[in-house]
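hey can u check if this looks right to u? its 178 residues, i copy pasted from the old doc so theres a chance i mangled smth
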Amino acid sequence: MSDYYNAFEMSPVPTPGPDAVPPEPFRGIYGMPAFVTIPTTDMAASVDFWTRGLGFIELFSIPGTLVHLRRWAFQDVLLVSSESVPEEAPSMSVTFACVLSQIDSVVDACRAVRPNSVDGPRDTPWTTRDVHVITPENARIVFTAAKPFDPASQEARDLAAIGITPPGVGEGDNEEHA
C-alpha cells in the first residue's frame, strides 16, 4: 500500500496531454507557500527577460527595490535590487511547470531576448520535457512540461515500481485520504 494519493485538484497545473491549456497568469494576492528571491543589478533588464522571455507578469513593484513576478498560482519570483550577482550560474536550479505547447515558445522568446540563454529542450525519464534557462542574473531556471502518460511505457513501469500509479489504478487512490 502507498501513502501517496491523487491531490491534483490543489494544483493549477492542467492534466498532461497534447491539448492541455495553460492557466492564465494568477493575479490574486495570497500567502505564498514558497517563492524565489533573485538579486539583480539591472532591474529593467531582468523584468524584461522574465516577462518577455519566460512569460511572467509584473504583479507589483516597489520602485528601485523589488518587483514581484508571477505566472500561475504558486509560481512567484521576487526580483530584488542588489550591488552584485554571481559571476556564474549555480548548479542549483528552480523549476516552473508549464504545458507542452509552451516549451517551444519559451525557447524562442528567451532566445529572442537573450540568444545564448537556453539549453534544450530535453525529455526526461520521469515523463517531462525540460528547458534550462540562464537568466540575466545568472539564475538557473528550468521550465518543465509533463508529457502525456502512456501506461504501457517504460516510464510508467519505472514509476509503478516505486509505488506511483495513475489515478484509478490499484490501491491507494484518493478514496481513503479525501
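The mean pLDDT is 88.
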